[in-house]
Design brief:
single chain, 82 residues, mainly alpha
Length: 82
């Protein structure tokens, strides 16, 4: 006896058929399932937050670095003029 891979229609597919719209094909069904899958959303959100924080820190450090460099140059000039 051969085993067939029978896929039960999802409720959304049944409602599409009732409305007269065609059910999505296998690829579209996978894409819809992937788009509605919420696993991993937290990891993605934390990654985006981490990237944003890193960008802010890079900007702050660059700004402070420029300010500190100017401060040291002024101090060196003041000491050199003594």
């Amino acid at each position: 006896m051969e085993a067939h891979n029978i896929v039960e229609p999802e409720p959304e597919q049944e409602s599409r058929a009732a409305e007269g719209r065609p059910a999505p094909g296998p690829l579209a069904a996978h894409v819809l399932r992937f788009a509605s899958d919420e696993k991993g959303n937290n990891a993605l959100e934390y990654a985006l937050i981490s990237v944003f924080i890193a960008l802010v820190l890079v900007g702050v450090v660059a700004s402070i670095g420029t300010s500190i460099s100017g401060l040291y140059q002024r101090q060196a000039a003041a000491v050199g003029s003594l």
